[in-house]
Specification:
The structure is a homodimer. The first copy, chain A, has about 270 residues and is an alpha+beta fold. Chain A has 2 domains: about 100 residues, 2-Layer Sandwich (D-amino Acid Aminotransferase, Chain A, domain 1); about 150 residues, Alpha-Beta Barrel (D-amino Acid Aminotransferase, Chain A, domain 2), CATH 3.20.10.10. In chain A, the strands form 2 sheets. In chain A, strands 8, 9, 10, 11, 12, 13, 14, 15 and 16 form a 9-stranded mixed beta sheet that branches. In chain A, strands 2-1-7-6-4-5 form a 6-stranded antiparallel beta sheet. Chains A and B meet through strand 3, helix 1, strand 6, strand 7 and helix 5 of A and strand 3, helix 1, strand 6, strand 7 and helix 5 of B. Strand 3 of chain A pairs antiparallel with strand 3 of chain B, so a sheet runs across the interface.
Chain lengths: ~270, ~270
Amino acid sequence: MLVNGVPGNTLSIRDRGFLYGDGVFRTLCVREGRPQHWPLHYQKLQNDCEKLGINCPDFACLSAELAGLMPAHPNAVYKMIVTRGLSVRGYAPAPDAEPTHVWDISAIPAYPDNCRTGVTLRLCALRLAAQPRLAGIKHLNRLENVLAAAECTDADEGLLLDTEGRVIEGVRSNVFLMAGDRLITPDLSRCGVAGVQRDRVIAYAREIGLSVEVRDVELAELCAADAVFLTNSVFGLWPVAQFEQCRWLDLSRTVQFQVLFEQDESWLN
Amino acid sequence: MLVNGVPGNTLSIRDRGFLYGDGVFRTLCVREGRPQHWPLHYQKLQNDCEKLGINCPDFACLSAELAGLMPAHPNAVYKMIVTRGLSVRGYAPAPDAEPTHVWDISAIPAYPDNCRTGVTLRLCALRLAAQPRLAGIKHLNRLENVLAAAECTDADEGLLLDTEGRVIEGVRSNVFLMAGDRLITPDLSRCGVAGVQRDRVIAYAREIGLSVEVRDVELAELCAADAVFLTNSVFGLWPVAQFEQCRWLDLSRTVQFQVLFEQDESWLN
């Protein structure tokens, strides 16, 4: 673990990341000493920082730190957290705040066998609030995800709707529907987190000639889809076999996207 | 500063308060060695913990810590933060997580002279998202307040509406309207933070025979009110002299509530 480039696993109780969740993060896998899609993760981190007015550490700095950590942890989950830094009391951010950046490393989880072949998805009772100013950003205000995750412990993943009942995302994943030659994924301009893998899937789908629709998605559409799958930078792609009373028996439709998660650095690094 | 009862000013980067804003807090003043309304603050802290399923440290434990800190800091702002504690990776909380509790102490701020006689309030562009599961709770997901505070640096306080345009609160305060013999304050069941001073004002208003209405409040009502004031456990009561183009020249209507903030422990401790 590194805190502002220095080995350590603590930070100040005056850090705004702790006090207000005033920061952003990204989670990526390192496999065999190769960080998966690090430039894409950095780009998202930087965009999210910019939306919140946080000074993002530069790519060279974070890349050098990452390179220094990998020899000891060549196969692991790496989490990069950037906060607005230390605070005097009060919500108003000082414009000259020096950001805090933290690398946290943990083991790559072992998922149940069914995950490659089809997961169970459950509807969360919690509905995501619409906040356009924070939508899409992977920020540190994640209480909605915490409460939703606590609800869905008996399924592989929970499905989150917004307050209007539209499909938004999984608790820790983005969601895709396939219907004929169309790939559909929810618009995230009101709420939700726009993951790196979501961008990769969208770009790849266009490349292979699918029609891609990023728009509002009703729950009825998900239930009627030919296939549904979830993406996340740690677990990769999970086809959905079951959502409440809906079943998908033929999961072959999603196989074409597995290439994005199995061929290492091959496409859209 | 105390972290889990031990002098210190750092905490683990694996603390869920940092990772997800998975915690709650309260801020109170200690004046001349007397903590202002500590039992009420504790009650709120405990209620908020319960709503999030966090095990709140007990009153005796926190009171003893507070008593130990006061001799060295007899006039200060005390912030008590309780988080769900350490986390393994992932949003789902472990049911047996041992909570983290932190005391942070800072100087009582010196406010501009106008604050006692009438502050300027400005409308924030940011609208509060409706999330009933988190409404009222003083939790650590405070990015909306951070962004709103950054907008309103040229006024004493910012006024926050919800996405439907209803009046909810100040960036760091609760808001009250007076109209005839009625005291009106926004319902906080969709969003907003229910402060200790809000409860005290409501209880006192009933005691002195005012009709109290806790309900949805339109912005037009605020503009038409006989008086508007703000409350907060650190600054106490601020009468509003100006909100955008609205002016309140006679601020005597709010004087009756100053007793709650000036007579020390006298009422509803």
